[in-house]
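User: Run a structure prediction on this.
Assistant: Running it now.
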Amino acid sequence: MRSVSVRGCAHGLAVGVLLAASVVDVVLYASDGTSVLPMASPSWQILAVVLVGLAAVLWPAGRRPEWFTPQLRTAVPALASALLTAASLLVDGEVEFGPGEIMILLCLLFIAVRHCPPRWAVVCGGLDTGALLILPVRSDLTLSSDVMGLEMIGLLLAGLIAALAGYLRSMDYRRTVAVSETRRSERLAIAADLHDFVAHHVTGILVQTQVARMMATTQPQELDPVLAGIERAATEALASMRRTVGVLRDTGPEASGHRPVGDLAGIAELIEGFATPGQKAVLSRDPAVSPDLPHEVQAAAFRVVQEALTNIRRHAADATHIEVRLQDDTGRLAVTVADDGRGGSQLPAAAHGGGFGLVGLIERVTALGGELNAGPRGGAGWEVRAVLPARKA
């Protein structure tokens, strides 16, 4: 709030100085001199140029019509000032210039360099600079040294303003690129999340559908729980896709805060709906595991469990006992998923995945400063174990 207040005060001060300088132009420098345009006194000539310039500089951004582009804003006042200078030479009249017109042209140069499209920035910036540099020829200065001195001062001011505007333009560009890259990486992460969610649920649907087909002839009376599991998995898959697509449609900076990632509480829901008939899935959670672990750590733990369970369905559908353990390992979170399967799976080859899930898990875990190991257990089965720091690295 303080920075916004300071910025507003600085803006108000700058506007006040510009308006005061413009009043000086009209009141002091337009009181004398010869008219250089028919039926127009010097005061009206200068007043017209100053008002056009002030409108271009001070018109509120929220109220500018679409046609009032930066090119138009910066070119028209510069042309008006240059035409007034040219007219004073053609009719041998004298029209003074003051600080208001100088400040307006410098402001227009700043706007042109910072906000105009690249090619137009050169054209409009050149017009503003040219109009500024030819101002001294309006006066009655007879010594070339005086004119050259004013020209050098004007050139120095124009160079400083153009350099500042160019620097801020480059910063704007870098900020835009950084925001675009951040959004792109975030959307890629969201796409990976969507893949994980849908793969988990759809694999469950496949497994339970196979079970239902086998039970249709042998145990038709037991089909209802299996069909209910298929319905639940399909509903969860649709909900996951709906949430993710909603996030992808949201282009605002708050989109990243709504990513459909899981947490430790979501692990219990995974276990609850995982087991098929003939299987038993249990969750063992150490009371020492804090429910207030960082969001990134909880999300990584959820992904480890989700990917491990998905792989059990894909590669060890014959497992009868699946255990998920959440333990406190000397201040770190240890996540273990173990099964007793022997590799029996009748899923279609296309449903077995591309083998990149474990690679993605390793990247996610190591990015947090943890470690992940996966391999066969003694006797039978497979175990995935991840150890995550209690705080993000």
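The radius of gyration is 36 Å.
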